[in-house]
Amino acid sequence: MQYTVGVEYALHCLVYLIDVPSKESVGIKDLAEFQGLSETFLSKVFGKLSKAGIVSSVPGVKGGYKLAKSPEDISFWDVVEAIEGPKPIFQCKNIKENGYLYREGCCSAPTFCTINLVMLSAEEKMRDDLRSKKLSWLNEELNRVLPKQIREDTRKYFS
């Protein structure tokens, strides 16, 4: 299982938007330049974030994006689901029904797959953990672990 790099870029960019005054926005060009990636790629990421209601776009020459919700109301899972979609990681193909005994009609397959139940349970635990981590937590954690100068320089870049 692997999430695309879009999730990582989204989380980084969303943290940068936290300190942007509510009447202002940050352009994709600035976000992409700061991250060192293409505007096209980041535009696709932000299109998904916008569709999910995590950011809102501001049209015009000075337009860009800003948070559509409070950082306390945006979880890591919200971002993952916006970028990756809602489908489960494990896709049960119900292969037990192809087994010899079931093919030969000796037995009937149970209506549930134990393997699928375990995998779905594990995924739900991961989702719960990601739901518990909010963008506001990430911002506080970065303030704690990164040098103060890096955080200040980042804020200056986007102001």
TrEMBL record:
Stretches assigned to coiled coil: none
GO cellular component: cytosol
InterPro entries noted in UniProt: TR_Rrf2-type_CS (IPR030489), Tscrpt_reg_Rrf2 (IPR000944), WH-like_DNA-bd_sf (IPR036388), WH_DNA-bd_sf (IPR036390)
Record-linked PROSITE patterns: HTH_RRF2_1, HTH_RRF2_2
A Pfam family reported for this protein in Swiss-Prot or TrEMBL: Rrf2
Molecular function terms, GO-annotated: DNA-binding transcription factor activity
Classification via PANTHER family: RRF2 FAMILY PROTEIN, WINGED HELIX-TURN-HELIX TRANSCRIPTIONAL REGULATOR, RRF2 FAMILY
Name by which UniProt lists this protein: BadM/Rrf2 family transcriptional regulator
Gene that produces this protein: nsrR_2
